Amino acid sequence: MCNKEKGILKEKLTINDIKRMKIIGEKISVTTAYDYVMAKIVDEAGIDIILVGGSLGMILLGYKNTVPVTQQDIEHHLRPVVRAIKRSVVVAPLSFGAYQISNEQAIRNAIRLMQIGANSVKTQGAGSTINRIKAIVKANIPCMGHAGLTPQYISQIGGFRAVGKFSNEAKKVYEDCLAIQEAGAWAIELECVPYEVAKLISKKLTIPIIGTGSGIFCDGQYLNLYDALGLLKSFKPRFAKRYINLFNCSVEALKKFKKDVKEKKYPTEDLSIKIPEKELENFKEEIKSLHK
């Protein structure tokens, strides 16, 4: 399969292709996938980057945030995704607790993700994480960073909120992005940052800046698949756009299924398996002996 739309046309995208998109001014599309079927859909749509993100904890596992997600959870969902992908670049995060202890721990867990089939790993924040990024990159493993709202450190931030609305905080986000770039990351997800701040960061940095609720001026845009398809009944981030409401569509479809079952309209004869008439008669004869 090849993306027919305007832009970089390749059977399989690489990280270098994504970096080149920033250079030529082509916006980068990013969404999530957590299983084989959804990954097939995303890849067929020609999305540039698929993130097997920690958000699976909130969406699939019912957690209140991404902190409880384990590296085993990430690995479990990564496996079917990479089997489905032909074109998209696949990024898998290091879960909370999978890289905070030491550089050796970070490299070991990053290697596991790459062995499963990820094209890149992903970390969150700056601070001590900078040393982890440096170590991962030194081990020849591509690493994507994450600044602004960092869900793994939600208790430090004070909840899911915009980050950088005050000048000192905006300066900190900017410094974090510079440090992440200098550590060797090839891209940064910039989450919930004022669009004016995100615009300046995208302009000043040489690596792609992928915005999540950070405005139009980022080099690319991330939108969670379940938000884009309207698969969640109530939760919807203020920056998310629903392109279809599959939750309501699915509920209505299943109501019709239930109605057909109750009214004995499903399955119809053409949806049922038939046995040849002669074999049916033989079968009836065969079971007669069982009831003597």
Q: What would you say this structure looks like, in words?
A:
About 45% of the residues lie in helices and about 10% in strands. The protein is an alpha/beta fold and about 290 residues long. The chain folds into 2 domains: about 230 residues, Alpha-Beta Barrel (TIM Barrel); about 45 residues, no CATH class. An 8-stranded parallel β-barrel has the order 1-2-3-4-5-6-7-8, surrounded by 7 helices. β3, α5 and β4 form a beta-alpha-beta unit. α2 packs across α4. The longest helix has 17 residues. It is elongated and about 85 Å long.
List keywords for this structure.
292 residues; alpha/beta; TIM Barrel; 12% strand; elongated
Quick gist of this model?
The chain is α/β, with parallel strands linked by helices. 43% of the residues lie in helices and 12% in strands.
Number of strands: 8
Strand order of the largest sheet: 1-2-3-4-5-6-7-8
Helical content (DSSP H or I, runs of 4+): 40-55%
Under the CATH scheme, the architecture of the largest domain is Alpha-Beta Barrel
Q: What count of helical segments does DSSP give?
A: 12
Beta-strand percent range: 5-15%
Low-confidence stretches: none
Q: Provide the residue-averaged pLDDT.
A: 94
Rg calculated over all Cα atoms: 24 Å
Q: Characterize the largest beta sheet: strand count, sense, and whether it forms a barrel.
A: 8 strands, parallel, barrel
CATH names the topology of the largest domain as TIM Barrel
The number of distinct structural domains comes to 2
- Class derived from helix and strand content: alpha/beta
Helix-strand string: HEHEHHEHEHEHHEHEEHHH
CATH H-level homologous superfamily name of the largest domain: Phosphoenolpyruvate-binding domains
